[in-house]
Amino acid sequence: MSKILAIDDDSIIRTLLTNILTKAGYEVVTAADGESGLELAISTNPDLVVTDFQMPGISGLDVVTELQRTQPGLPVILLTAHGDVALTIKSIQLGAYDFIEKPIQMQELLDVIRNGLEVSRQSRSLTEAISPEIRKAIEDNLLVGKTPVMREIFKNIGRISLNKVNVLITGETGTGKELIARLIHFSGITREHPLIVVNCSTLNESLLEHELFGYTLGAFPGAMNDKKGKFEQAGEGTLFLDEISELTDNIQTKLLRVLQELEFEKPGADDPLPMKARIIAATNKDLEALVKSGKFREELYYRLKVFTIALPPLRNRKEDIAELVKHLMGKLNRKLNKRVLKIGDGVLDLLQSHDWPGNVRELENTLMQAFIMTRSDVLEKEHIALMSSHEGADGEAFELKSIADIEKVHIKKVLDRVKWNKQEASRILEITRPTLNAKIEKYGLKHN
After folding, report:
1. Among 436, 407, 438, which residue's Cα sits nearest to residue 422?
2. 28, 22 in Cβ contact below 8 A?
3. Roughly how many angstroms between the first and final C-alpha of the chain, as a whole number?
4. Domain annotation for the chain: domains and CATH numbers
5. Is 70 helix (H, G, I), strand (E, B) or coil?
6. Is the pTM of this model over 0.85?
7. What does the pLDDT read at residue 396?
8. Any idea what the Cα angle at residue 138 is, between residues 133 and 142, rounded to 5°?
9. Is residue 62 within 8 Å of 87, Cβ to Cβ?
10. Which among 200, 360, 170 is positioned nearest to 284, based on CA atoms?
């Protein structure tokens, strides 16, 4: 028999809830305020909590927040006579399972409770996906991968990090080239020095030159102050040059001279400055082919690739997807203020069946969308929306969508599919009619 904790300062509501839920076959414990309710949640270990929003002292939202901290995954349903969009959004953001307006409709309450208990049952039947070891790995900024090619890359990072040889990182978009650069930097002798990141494709030639080399006051018209360039800022640390293939021929020539002479000229300065940083460059293009076609300087290419790390695409190391998912779950929990700790049945099989043209970045974007739609501590298969081939391999379609955009589109699709039958849409979305109405109003959704 499932146990439900009902918290409400109104004795009539407590009696009503007790009668309804007892007749439905549930064991019921009640509390008259939020403080005693939280105490009962610890001592009685309920399967679900129904709590009033407006209570003296600890409010229903406070109860939700505290239970999410102490008993993650415990479904909490909020009752309120003050149904508005802002409150609905706030309660869901804090982790409430659902939101029901008073006066209570018995069937609606029982439907929501049944769905909530099923979520709780699934959650408790699964083991935690994020182990202490994985959490520690995330905190230490480590990468994840057990395939032979990734183990070899990790070994090489260990070797490279103990000296300051230049490194060229190659791989498709989204494979994690910058993360490799960060790992090299923070794993060895440069960890106490700056890591400076420059994307060579985002600035025109003049601005990029100023960014790299800096200038002194009066070095040219408009130079109103001294500016430290990236070579100077990096000091004895690491300068990471992403999208190195996009450098113009002029900047390539100047960079080659820096690498040959280990010094650089700061416009306006009397003497050259020493270049003490390690250079890590990255590209998703075939630099050797660009050299052969005359679009990239051969000498610069060989100066950069003292050591090369070639990152494999995710489709060639699908055995790592399970560990990557656990790794990314921790990151997304912090980023989205969620507590998704478990992986539902079929999720990993689904993810491992996809070819991931956008690589790890696409996987992260896919999980982010799933996290947004997840209302429990379980990552479920139905929340995984795999990117179709026409959306682009770099995953930009996901990166440019806000949380609200994703939810708006999903709700509109469900409503259109069921011909705006709100009862059916609420069932599919696993939300109450008032919550659905609030979201329709918030997003300005219209029946076609």
Report:
1. 436
2. yes
3. 45
4. 3-125 (3.40.50.2300), 148-311 (3.40.50.300), 317-443 (1.10.8.60)
5. helix
6. no
7. 43
8. 100
9. no
10. 170
The token pair at 242 is 């992403």
Distance CA 251, CA 314 (A): 33
Radius of gyration of the chain (CA): 28
Cα 340 from chain centre? 12
Interacting residues of 413 by C-beta distance below 8 A, sequence separation 6+: none
CB 374 within 8 A of CB 341: no
DSSP code, position 25: T
CA distance 132 to 205: 47
Give the angle 397-402-405 at the CA atoms, nearest 5°: 85
Residue 262 Ramachandran class (φ > 0 left, ψ -120 to 50 alpha, else beta)? left
Joined together, the tokens standing for residue 125 give 């039947």
29/40 Cα distance (integer angstroms): 8
According to the model, what pLDDT value does residue 397 have?
Answer: 41
Per the CB < 8 A criterion, the answer to whether 82 and 53 are in contact is yes
Q: Please say whether the dihedral angle defined by the alpha carbons of residues 209, 210, 215 and 219, taken in this order, is positive or negative.
A: positive
Token digits for 377? 């501590």
Question: CA torsion angle for 21, 24, 28, 32 (degrees, to 10)?
Answer: 0
Report pLDDT digits (tens) over 306-329.
999 999 999 999 999 998 998 889
**Alpha-carbon distances, residue 414 vs 171, 247, 303 (angstroms):** 38, 47, 56
**Nearest CA-CA partner of 169 in 156, 158, 151, 187:** 156
pLDDT in tens, 188-226: 888 889 999 999 988 888 889 989 998 888 778 877 788
Give the Cβ contact number of residue 152 at 10 Å: 11
Pairing mode, strands 98-101 and 273-274 = unpaired
Q: How many CB atoms lie within 10 A of CB 97?
A: 26
Q: Round to whole Å and give the CA distance between 316 and 319.
A: 9
What is the distance between the alpha carbons of residues 273 and 269, in angstroms, rounded to a whole number? 9
- Which stretch of DSSP H or E encloses residue 314? none
Residue type (1 letter), 444:
G
